[in-house]
Specification:
The protein is α/β, with parallel strands linked by helices and 326 residues long. It folds into 2 domains: 190 residues, Rossmann fold (3-Layer(aba) Sandwich), CATH 3.40.50.720; 95 residues, UDP-galactose 4-epimerase, domain 1, CATH 3.90.25. 41% of the residues lie in helices and 15% in strands. The longest helix is centred in the first third of the chain and has 21 residues. The chain is globular. The C terminus is likely disordered. The structure holds 2-amino-3-ketobutyric acid (AKB). 2-amino-3-ketobutyric acid (AKB) binds next to strand 7.
Length: 326
């Protein structure tokens, strides 16, 4: 561990950012990780700064104030939410990335993490075992911004030598935050409804299989990629990683082993159209070869942990509407 590692997490209140910040603080100590987002979050146990990542000067100010050496850029508008305001989504997702890339190259930042997504895939890519180098044809503004972002990340590496690393996250399933604006967030909400013994209205068809990943695996993958030797990184757009692929009906089957009376209504909406263009499984051979990626959680384990953690949380009273502290 480099004692001079100073990390800035942009988007630290989000689904990934809130958990990643905690893990980074364990690894680099609480004094060496600065969390940031649009507004304060009293669940953050450590240094927190307000950053609107569309404001390049603010990012520069914080990078200078704390002598930041690594930046994790996790702020973005997700797929479903992004379709409500396409041009604003493009503007926010791209402007924030350009600000991070420009501040990073101008301040000799050692490493930058840029999250991409399975949302970069669309018509024309294989639906099964989709490879890293598949044809990218995203159908959402979020996916378009991530595909563009991958190419900008590669450009900053090739043009300026900036060590930008990226993962195409599957749908992330975690108990630490409430479901957000993602097409895959049905797989978070379903567990909350089961534990609360409420009916679940699923906005996807029962048989649409999507690549998913448990939060612990997603966080470990992120840190393992960022810790890999620079010379082992051969993919400078973004790495595919696979966790576990499943459909809503498969999750329901697992949940009903614990909640036999769990009731689900399938009411596909516009998000089904988004999901139908995404792969059902991912080829992550490059991540396995370059930095030894291996997932650890299957659907049975995910279900048992999600139910146990949410039972604990709801027993303590209703969670706050953003981050569930555990
Ligand atoms: C979304 O559904 O938009 C995200 C993603 C797959 O990147 N969870």
């Amino acid at each position: 561990m480099k004692m001079d590692t100073k990390v800035l997490v942009i988007g630290a209140n989000g689904q990934l950012g809130s958990v990643l910040t905690k893990e980074l603080r364990k690894k680099y100590t609480i004094e060496n990780v600065v969390a940031s987002d649009l507004k304060e979050n009293d669940n953050q146990k450590g240094i927190f700064e307000i950053i609107d990542a569309t404001d390049r000067n603010r990012i520069q100010e914080i990078v200078e104030r704390y002598n930041i050496t690594q930046i994790y850029h996790l702020a973005a508008i997700l797929s479903a939410k992004g379709e409500e305001t396409p041009l604003a989504t493009w503007d926010i997702n791209m402007k924030t990335l350009f600000n991070v890339l420009e501040v990073s190259r101008n301040n000799n930042i050692d490493k930058v993490f840029f999250p991409s997504s399975i949302a970069v895939f669309g018509e024309g890519a294989p639906l099964e075992n989709t490879p890293d180098d598949a044809y990218l044809n995203p159908a959402t503004v979020y996916g378009i911004s991530k595909a563009a972002g991958e190419n900008w990340a590669q450009y900053y590496f090739m043009r300026y030598g900036l060590d930008v690393r990226s993962i195409r996250y599957p749908g992330v399933v975690g108990y630490q935050s409430m479901p957000g604006g993602g097409t895959t967030d049905y797989a978070v909400d379903i567990y909350h409804k089961a534990v609360l013994k409420e009916e679940f209205n699923c906005f996807l068809k029962e048989d649409v299989t999507l690549p998913m990943i448990f939060m612990d695996d997603a966080i470990r993958a992120t840190i393992e990629l960022m810790e890999a030797p620079k010379e082992s990184i051969t993919v400078r757009t973004s790495y595919n990683i696979a966790g576990i692929s499943f459909s809503p009906e498969e999750v329901v089957t697992e949940i009903r082993k614990l909640y036999p009376d769990f009731k689900v209504n399938y009411k596909p909406d516009f998000r089904q159209e988004i999901a139908s263009r995404w792969p059902s499984s991912i080829d992550d051979a490059s991540a396995i070869k370059d930095w030894g990626w291996q997932p650890e959680f299957n659907l049975k384990a995910i279900t048992e942990i999600m139910v146990q953690k949410l039972q604990e949380k709801y027993k303590k009273g209703m969670p706050n509407k953003e981050i569930l502290t555990f």
